[in-house]
Queue: 4 jobs
Job 1
Amino acid sequence: MLFATPRIISALILREIGTSYGRSPGGYLWALAEPVLGIALLTVIFSIGFRTPPIGVNFPLFYATGLLPFLMFVDLSNKVAQAINYSKQLLAYPRVTFIDALLGRFILNFLTQFLVAFITLAGVILCFDTRAALNFSQIASGLGLIAALSFGLGTFNCFMMSMFQIWQRIYAIFTRPLLLLSGVIFVYSTVPEPYRGWLWYNPLVHIVGRVRAGFYPNYDAPFVSVSYVYAISAFFGIFGLLLLRRYHRDILER
């Protein structure tokens, strides 16, 4: 039985709420505090050396529109990657499938990260003179890209990390520089060639560009390729699902 059922997914979501966020009163508060502190730190550091951010007039908004999509991707992809290890005991039941585990973790953490981003950005816009002009279609498109890439790469990593413990360390090493290479603290168009061309292949650059275009009406991001991000997401997602379908019983017996 490979198709997820709403009742099982709902039960897995409630379990995750209790174990991941309900053990202490600060569970959800920390999820909100992490990006807020990150944005504040970047604002303080770069406002010392520069009078204005690369786009717009407000440092907190510029870094919020870069850091929040990045953190959302990191959290979602990591949570999906650990879905089978997290729910290994429940997967022993025939009615619970690995797809249930993947979707349960993904849905809860996507909604959590969306709420965190909404509260943070609303706070920035209300507290500062950001001069933002929201384009909801662009923002929604950016969220769709985050969701697709997080689930696709997370599904592939779910297989790799469940089968090969060393993969978690290898992946962590290779992705450590992503904060500096994803357009969080700079604008893609300001990067000189040939480095700009190399950075284009980082799907997070496209995601950050699309999200920022939803807040800055004068920000031109022609480099963003929605089809490229979805193609990368589909490749890793389908490949990961096929591998999990073939080897998920072997993983549970490990």
Note: The chain has a mean pLDDT of 88.
Job 2
Amino acid sequence: MESLASAVYLTLAIAVVGGYLLGSIPFGLIATRLGGAGDIRQIGSGNIGATNVLRSGRKDLALITLLGDAGKGVVAVLLARYLTHGNPMVIALAGGAAFLGHLFPVWLKFKGGKGVATFYGVLLSAAWPVGALAAITWLAMAAIFRISSLAALTAAVLAAPFAIATDQPRPILGLAIFMAILIFIRHRENIARLLKGEEPKIGKKKPAEPAPAEAP
């Protein structure tokens, strides 16, 4: 009995810790440095995600970042699915851990991205109907308004209703709610700019901060 419990705890630890470490891989920073675009943290908003990488003018690096950030969520969930033969609770914990890893990566002193691509990767692999509907929502909103943050926030807030509509297990519903809340928290500044009508559109550089006035 003890050996069985130990095996369960070990499996859970591998899924959660492995998910977090996978999520912590900063693909945006790695791609821009290896691609000769410098440190993405010094460009635009300073975020390590694909939207900010696009502001560097390198669409190829932005695509690599998008695929990498989504892919690490996919791998974390698939690892948990393989280890537990599809246990929804462990899958949700591993996916949530990967998402937290992207937001708070140990390699970057816990200063990470906003989690949108990883959010989609986790959802698509944990519950593909929810992920697909969220992705379609993002594409539709982005096509209409050309504002990445608005598209992401809309998709995030609809993820839980999508999970309910497609009859997903409770852990997956909890995962969708958990990630949506953190996406809203991480997008506080974006929300403030949206309310002011100042949020930059996709592909456009974020306006530079005004220089401080010199003392007379």
Note: The mean pLDDT is 91.
Job 3
Amino acid sequence: MSHDVQKKYLWHNIKVTATAYNSIKAQTNAHPQITAFGDSLKPGVKVVAVTQDLYEKGLKYNTPVKINGLQGVFYVKDRMASRWKNKIDIYMGVDVKAAKNWGKRHITITYGVPLE
């Protein structure tokens, strides 16, 4: 992450349950390439979906997220079903094997809240 991006945010750590998903109909809905916010998904983009409670804690649309064990910065571009709590879902394109290998983990993520 560039130093300029680092300076634009106040960074927070939070423990979450992290799973992974793919843009295939069997895992989402009839439009698996469109997020809940209306963004288009394509393999290679770094996107996470968040639960409503995390959204309310500051993981809003376009929030940058660093995930231990994965390279780069992901951005909140999708929402999860209301039945889940304190959970993120990491977008892994159409690589179902990678998503299954990730499985379900309890991890600490770091997310940025814009400085005003």
Note: Strands lie at 9-21, 47-50, 64-67, 73-79, 87-91, 105-114.
Job 4
Amino acid sequence: MFKKLAADALGLSDIGKVIEPQDYDKTEADDYVLHEKGEKIYFIIKTKADEYCFTNLALIHVDGDSAVSKKRTLKRYDYKYNTIYNVSLETAGTIDLDVEIKFVIGEKVFSIDINKSYAEKIKDLYKSLISIERIMKENDKHKNYMLDSLDYATKTLSSQGFSQTQSPSESFKEITEYTNSWLNSMSDQYSNEDFGHVFDLYLKN
């Protein structure tokens, strides 16, 4: 009992371990993966309180109140709607027991401690997340270019007026339909929903 209380006080009870693929089905997170939609687990970190499940589509966080409570809250962060940024990795020193991976997804800040025996595996997760961050930054840059182009086109059209061969209502409808179609096309081009190809590159399951 004393060892357990000491571990909780020092924060050692919440140092995570990496779950092997053959044990994914033994985790709580696995129950919430959208297998029917082609969602696939690539990496799971498990502490006594939490599970952090990285899939090709999202981060699934099984959030525990404490290491001694059975209460859990499920939180899902789809990559399509939540940008990953500020990814960093703190490696273990000589006397450290853990490594720490940090990142922000959406507006949520994560800082996860993992036993340093899994350091090599965590390096691969770091490479995956930093690569996803770079892709998302590129997508955001192109989206800004897209909006700037649309603004320029709108101002140019306004200065030139409507077509002389169409009524204003017909011209407006044609422009609106084209703009909507173009925006949807550009949005799809620069929005990634599935990052399985990135995880496949770095994670050797």
Note: The chain is about 40% helix and 25% strand.
